[in-house]
Design brief:
253 residues, 6-stranded parallel sheet, Undecaprenyl pyrophosphate synthetase, 9 helices, 13% strand, alpha/beta
Length: 253
């Protein structure tokens, strides 16, 4: 082991030891950003960057398990990304399909796809649903796999399904307008029944949400990391937890 690896290991253990275990986030959202820039910076093809990003997911989930996180939401592909050139999109979709299938085969995490699956190629949507079915009895970490996901689309879908439910029940528009609540809309979101994210992490140095969990993150804490997603290390994750634990959460008050 070289000196830098030794120092890194000591620092990692120190960070883990000093964490406030009473302030662990229940739900962590992660924007896995920077795969393309990582590939360009390292002289690789774009698909190599996406594959390196997919290979990092298992590490993150293991770190979340160690920390006691209950729910993780991974943003793998946005609705905007679906407009990319086919030469990039098709390999990316294949990488996502393999990654999700491999996670399901491990039977270690309960997978839950979120997003507009109707916008995806049929075989991708089927693979996501199959992964959910295959892991529905797993008692471990819940992993929301956001593919074809957009925050505005999610809210529009939630309102659409709410309206359809009330239409089937015979509720008039006037009665619905008078009674609809924040809680009722939330009950139709992709993440219904789950706690809202306590902490949202974005890699690659970008400091914006870009439509990620717009409704659910209203009271979340945010952590922006300079590392591209394939370079994201356990110390980066522990630093995010340390930053989260040091904050006084006001929940909008």
């Amino acid at each position: 082991m070289d000196l830098s690896s030794l120092i890194y290991g000591v620092y990692e253990r120190r960070l883990a030891h000093d964490l406030d275990r009473t302030a662990t986030p229940r739900h962590v959202g992660v924007m896995l950003d920077g795969n393309r820039r990582w590939a360009k910076a390292n002289g690789f093809d774009t698909a190599d960057g996406h594959q390196a990003g997919a290979d990092k997911i298992r590490d993150l989930l293991a770190w979340c398990e160690e920390a006691g996180v209950e729910v993780v939401t991974l943003w793998l592909l946005s609705t905007d990304n679906l407009d990319r050139d086919a030469s990039e999109l098709e390999p990316l979709l294949r990488i996502i399909e393999r990654a999700v299938s491999d996670l399901a085969a491990a039977h270690r995490w309960r997978l839950h796809p979120i997003g507009a699956l109707d916008l995806l190629p049929a075989h991708i949507a089927e693979a996501l649903r199959a992964a959910e079915t295959a892991t529905q009895d797993v008692a471990g970490l819940t992993v929301n796999v956001a593919v074809g996901y957009g925050g505005r689309r999610e809210i529009a879908d939630a309102v659409r399904h709410l309206l359809l439910d009330h239409a089937r029940a015979g509720t008039s528009l006037e009665d619905l307008a008078a009674t609809v609540s924040v809680e009722e809309i939330a009950s139709h979101l992709y993440t219904r029944g789950q706690p809202d994210p306590d902490l949202v992490i974005r890699t690659s140095g970008e400091q914006r949400l870009g439509g990620f969990l717009l409704w659910q993150s209203a009271k979340s804490e945010f952590y922006f990391c300079e590392a591209y997603w394939p370079d994201f290390r356990k110390v980066d994750f522990l630093r995010a937890l340390r930053s989260y634990g040091s904050r006084e959460r006001r929940f909008g008050r």
